[in-house]
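Next comes this protein:
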Amino acid sequence: MAFVLFKQRTKTIEEQTKGGKHLHETEPPRKRAFLVGAEVFTAASPWGVEDSLQELALLADTAGLEVVGQLSQKLSTPSPKFFIRPGKVREVAALREELKYDLLIFDDELSPAQTRNLEKELQTAVLDRTALILDIFAQHARTHEGRIQVELAQYQYLLPRLRRQWTHLERQAGQGGTSAGGVVGLRGPGETQLELDRRNIDRRIAWLKEQLEAVHRHRELYRQQRRESGLPVVALVGYTNAGKSTLLNALTDATVHVADQLFATLDPTTRQMTLPNGQQVLLTDTVGFIQKLPTQLVAAFHATLEEINLADLLLHVLDITHPNAQEQTQTVDETLKKLGVEGKPMLTVLNKVDKMEPMNEATVGNLAAELGMPKDYLAVSAQQGWGLEALRARIEASLANVMLLIEACIPYQKGNLVALWHERGYIEEEQHEEEGTRIRGRLPRALLPQFAPFLKQ
């Protein structure tokens, strides 16, 4: 059972019976959050603390919170007790009366001890970046697989943070324990409710992993069918809210949910796309990346991220107009490296160029050069449909390079293989001869056995 820390989108209904007034819905006030960040000198990161806190504010807004202030500190190393220094903790406490915040959100992952110490010292709820992202994922998970993945990540995060919170967490004397006047040698402190909770969560985690393994087996069957069909797979990757889902809709005429917020899309979506030469390919949208991506999410979303590993081509979608576009690019590159796919063929797609003033090739080129983008980038506007034909042509050319270059003479009675080559492969030359259709071009490796009897050396 997935838990959600903030349920700000829950509506309350007030009934007014006087004067014949109708039922109406009202939104409850949003919880007020105060943000705390730290610039740790020993942690190498392209992100500055102010930029990172700005992103944390967007995460808080996505979770349904109202940000009322923020504070940061430069640290050589985090404090083991509070993460920030005690003087800064006192400064945060002094702001409570003025800002009347309901909870603190730290921009880094806190240890269980740091969270407990801060809550005890400040007498307010404390969350870290990981807990906030997990809550957003819980709000946005729509499929069965997505909910399982989020719940597993939440429990893995919660397990080391269980602590005495309720009166029933007192020790229960075991059978023959001291309080029961038991036999010497059999007395024991019994089991705490905390230990029982941990055991229940351990069982739940084991069950969730079994469910994900079943999903993985189902996905593997689906992937096997895709491999046998020979349809190339193109995966959209990139920072969250870069416009991947909008681009998927624009290229495939799909109706995938899109929203101008972080992590609007969690579950992978695959649609079929037709390239200019008539070749059919599969286009897959994947979950967006973010800096300081929680390790629990990387583990829980392993099955989803496998779509990236198995793709023939990656499209790195980047919001070129974002003030932290360069830092986002570095984060995506580092995440792909952790996933072991840094060497896979990839095209850089600079999205949202319609927001640039003026919108022309020179403006895009200057900004791309300033940000250090690859020279073979594609500039598009998924929202306006600008540059999509050029993108399709580049995808076609890139996929041709990863296919096998072969030549075959296919008998006329095997016309279905010619049609298959047109649909799944890339044809450079086609001639009709006496013995059949001679074709030179490229094919996905998975289709090679069907054409093997007709190959020319």
About this structure: The first strand starts at residue 12 and ends at 14. Residues 1-24, 164-190 have pLDDT under 50 and may be disordered. The domain at 231-400 is CATH 3.40.50.300 (Rossmann fold). The two ends are 60 Å apart (CA to CA).
